[in-house]
Amino acid sequence: MERCELALQLLPGRYWPQLRELAPAVEEYRLRTGEPLGFVRCGREYALPGDAVSERDLLRTLEKATGASLHTAAPALNRGYLSVRGLRIGVCGDMLWRDGEAQGFRSYSSLALRVPRECRGICDGAIKSLFADGFQNTLILSPPGGGKTTALRELIRRLSDRGTRLCVCDERGELAASEGADPGFDLGRHTDVLSGCPKAAAAMMLLRGMAPQVIAMDEITQREDLDAVREITGCGVGLLATAHAATVGDLQRRPLYRELLALGCFQAVLVISLHGEGREYRWSLLPP
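-> structure tokens emitted (288 positions)
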């Protein structure tokens, strides 16, 4: 099932007639109790005319996403999101917190369904420039929802199909969107994927076991990820990664990312910016 159709099927059925034509272009659905259903296109949120979303709607969506087994999905929900065949569902509500750990939700107030896509050719110009003289370790930047993961997926595919032996740390299962052993997205002929494992641990396993030429990972957010970056590049392996930032200057204002840049592990950045109904992909070299 296509991811846009999967997302639609998870939503309350009364919204389907209005959303059917919109669905192929929708990047996220937003369900908030007491508010109209929201949908996001190219970073902008719109409200769907009609009645408001209820907590019952949220519960029903989560039940469909978990195969009517919310209890089984509790460990994932306690991290604030679910992954369903590459589709990420963010969860908010009244959380029960005890002894420094999440114990579950008393109630749910909103959901964010992010719809993953395979978009071939979206950054062809940037790819030609970035890798004209051979591979360069590249960091992809955009604000949340800007399209980093989609661009990373395309870079992985293009490099892999050119013959690069590439390994993917797919912690949340969003890059490959695998269903069992079968990837939901085409990541190229020479790509190996390790999913469901924290990025830092996955990188060490891949370095030891798969002899990659390049390792790709999504969303560097923790100090453990920095340690993995240092280890990967220290072993002479190339790196593709993403980070939440609008510009390189934005990165430099945040301690974790300032430290990341100071490592000198990345040679280039690909910055994604939203312009009206489209996206612009701009690359540049980082100072040595």
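The chain has two domains: 3-114, 124-285.
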